[in-house]
Amino acid sequence: MKILVLGGDGYLGWPTAMYLAEKGHDVSVVDNFHRRLWDTEIGASSLLPIAPLQDRVSVWASLGKKPIGVHVGDITEWDFIESVFNKTQPEAIVHYGEHRSAPFSMLSRRNAVVTQVNNVVGTLNVLYAMKDLAPESHLVKLGTMGEYGTPNINIEEGFLEVTHKGRSDVLPFPKQPASFYHLSKVHDSHNIMFVCRAWGLRSTDLNQGVVYGVHTDETALDPRLATRFDYDDVWGTVLNRYCVQAAIDHPLTVYGKGGQTRGFLDINDTLKCVELAIEHPASMGEYRVFNQFTEQFTVLELAQKVAEAARKVGWDPIIENITNPRIEMEEHYYHAEHTRLLDLGLEPRYLSETLIDGLLGTVGGLADQVNRRLLYPGHSWKEGLLETQPVQ
Amino acid sequence: MKILVLGGDGYLGWPTAMYLAEKGHDVSVVDNFHRRLWDTEIGASSLLPIAPLQDRVSVWASLGKKPIGVHVGDITEWDFIESVFNKTQPEAIVHYGEHRSAPFSMLSRRNAVVTQVNNVVGTLNVLYAMKDLAPESHLVKLGTMGEYGTPNINIEEGFLEVTHKGRSDVLPFPKQPASFYHLSKVHDSHNIMFVCRAWGLRSTDLNQGVVYGVHTDETALDPRLATRFDYDDVWGTVLNRYCVQAAIDHPLTVYGKGGQTRGFLDINDTLKCVELAIEHPASMGEYRVFNQFTEQFTVLELAQKVAEAARKVGWDPIIENITNPRIEMEEHYYHAEHTRLLDLGLEPRYLSETLIDGLLGTVGGLADQVNRRLLYPGHSWKEGLLETQPVQ
After folding, report:
1. Of B156, B179, B187, the CB nearest to A187
2. CA nearest to A162 within chain B
3. How many CB atoms lie within 10 A of CB A363?
4. Model ipTM?
5. DSSP-derived pairing of the beta strands A252-255 and A159-164
6. pLDDT single digits (tens) A208-248
7. Class of the CATH domain delimited by A2-379
8. Interface residue B152 vs chain A (CB under 8 A)
9. Would you list the domain boundaries of chain A?
């Protein structure tokens, strides 16, 4: 199948591109390298060195793999996305091509505007490109579980059957996102739902949980095929950060009480879920939502798991509850349904000691590369700039 | 009270500015004249001639009225809105400063992007200006009943109590907007709801129905104080268009079957509702929604009312059901609650024969100014450009 991977240079985009190429698909990646630029903005970098995209695809091809095409440009520019669609005639579009950091979106007015405009306009352009140039293509859009917030009822997959004053309807699940980034994803979801209804396009919205891990069968083939490992306060996700902290004898920083419950999944399950969505496409005119995660944990539970694994390899991290820079409930009900991908055949790789051990091993060898400045949040979503930690 | 009226040169903004000044408030209007520009884009104009904003405020002051300040600029530009807030120190912000046409937003990709970026960025800037420069001010934001779509349950005012699998919560009412314009308002609503929670700002979101009428106590003082009368297929609203069609012996064009039910209100009730919201502000941190309309009608019922009134003054319009350019259900359940403004003291001016007679009289005197090209929709939301009607 001809597949476009938007944001194909990113943490998940690049492993997805290789994975789908390995399955025999005709894959092209699209990227404008904003993600690499933003590292520069906040003075961070991936702990695992990442090769230029052009080298990544060369190395991949040199291993005898099915070549991956590259289109460098910005999907918020219509001329660019139009030419990419004309050249590639995609049957499926995997859309990772968005700003993806809640803390980044909350840093300033500029960051809020940049995040929402980038994500909304990029996605609008993709939808018009589909309508005009590939009306039967299937959009596999990366959303986020964060769109739902933390309601006091079970979170369903995209829609909710409501009975009210004696009448019933199935309605979009009410959204309570908690950052300008998460809001941008909600804006997208509404726009996509509308064009499926209005124009008969089709889309699967993957409301993804927090992803952990960096190793896939394909990244393991050559160090130059590695994907990003972010541990900083802006781009890093929680499990990755804990592992880095454990490896350098730094406290594991739990935001607030740590009762924040979220859905999590292994990077390999992300790849499998995207493949399942592509293999079992939405019907024409259908907008469907899959909640893409495999397990729920509190952020404190994750810290405890990492601390336990770390102790077994001779480290002894302490857990530190720090002031929460975010605006979120620290104790709340959370139960999100996630059966639709299981129904399609997903066999989850649950979070295991082995996985954490592997991450700790990866990180342990790079401990001297860790920038300690990035391990504490530098910005409160309510109060603005926080006193930054000294470089150590 | 010091009040900013964003979009204060528009159909509702200008009458609102005069009304609030007449009530003794210290009013400044902000506008970038996009609305006048868009007339040029589609080759339309207000049936009632409208004076330049600078003349409007001069005439107003020359009548001995409390002067209205003017700030010309674009609220999507941060430097501009920042300087306006610094100069005016608003206690209330009435926010009409958005693109407001569903058909305009559906004309092309460019129009969709322009509408969403303009509305989302302008509103984000207002929210940051409030946070940084006027944190206790009250945002009175014009939303639209179109945010809700046409669910098969009663539409509540902003929130819905849901019981699901044995648990309960009060959640944002699920939104099903049906144009890129309506979607932009839903995006705004989510952004505003978030900052009230995150930053403790306060806002009243007025989900307004379709407004009819042009005459207020203030516009009646001088012809140069008149507000817009739009009857074209892009900017005109349905009752206004029917009246113009009746006056020139043109069929009243009902889109599709005409069973589309919407909420409607008189322009004078818009002014009163805005005043009530200002006088009874939201609490700090509160995001509240009022459904701002007074009656529900189908678009066919409205055509019948206009036809009946027209026959009494000697005209004899026929009703023509034309192909619906929009994407909407033409027969559906519709029952929207609207008690919160009544609870605050709104005494509705219901749609009367007198009102329609008045509109027909206004329009009758201007019949030779009507541009017939603008009376049929020129663009289908699904099919694109329609064959335009010849200029007659």
Report:
1. B187
2. B162
3. 24
4. 0.97
5. unpaired
6. 999 999 999 999 999 999 999 999 999 998 999 999 999 99
7. alpha beta
8. yes
9. 2-379
